[in-house]
Fold this protein.
Amino acid sequence: MEPAQTRNVMSQLRRGTVEYCVLALLRDGERYGFELVRDLSAVDGLVTSEGTIYPLLTRLRKDELVTTFWRESESGPPRRYYRLTDAGNAALDDFTKDWARFRDSVDAILSKGRR
Amino acid sequence: MITMDTDRLVDDYLRRLESAAAHLQRSRRAELVSEIREHIEAALREEDAAGEAAVRNVLERLGPPEEIVDAAEPPPTPARTGKLEIAALIALVVPFIGWLFGIVLVLVSQAWSRRDKAVGIALALAAVLLPFLTLAAGSEHAGSSPLPVGEQRAPLPEAGGGDRTSIVEVMLFAVIFLAGLPSALYLGWRLRRHPAA
């Protein structure tokens, strides 16, 4: 029973945070979908299946946190690029602050319990 | 080079994705499939390999198509309404014993939220009790006449009073037979909107 419970918590945490990781990856400039997905999945424990990031990108675009555009590539067909919007930037800043506070609080309580 | 076999692997995967996404809007589905297709092509170009192992690896990393679609929009749970719920809805429209049965079944079922159950049962109780209460209130008024309620309607054969009683009876029957309906309809509707989790 318990492992399933933990997995569930992690998948919910992941669901809530991965989109901000996407925004963070776009902070330094536009990226194309494949590149974003591979960078995210290279981070341990963040993404379980790469395919699920595409629906997430669509959602971010619908929420106008990112915009997309096509750009020619030297090899192969044009690629869909993603770029952070002002709203996306603001959302990322907010989350960064909230997350730091949240993480510190949880860490504090978890380490207190251990002693 | 991509061989027939690896092509078929990709095609199969995309077809699975397409059918898993059947509940998505057509444009949304097309977009998702083309994004995943682009990803596969980019991945294979990147790895500069297109052997069967490489293709399988790329597809595996993408994850099961159902999971991808689930991340876009979980499919509506097919109406896997249990027998219990159907029995409850049917029981609710059967007067007296059925109401009791229905209410017990609704309470036992896990398909409805606590709120749905409360509303459904309240509807049933209200529909059943209201007519009786109005009738009781009505007969209290009638009680001011010298005759007791029971005797009032029995003897007068041709008088207008007889017609009125039969109308009341018909209405009472109708009310009794329809009493469980609002509740059953409400619960049935909730079942469609919020299928059991």
Observations:
- The beta strands of chain A are 31-32, 66-71, 79-84.
- Helices of chain A lie at 2-25, 33-42, 53-62, 86-114.
- Chain A has one domain: 2-114.
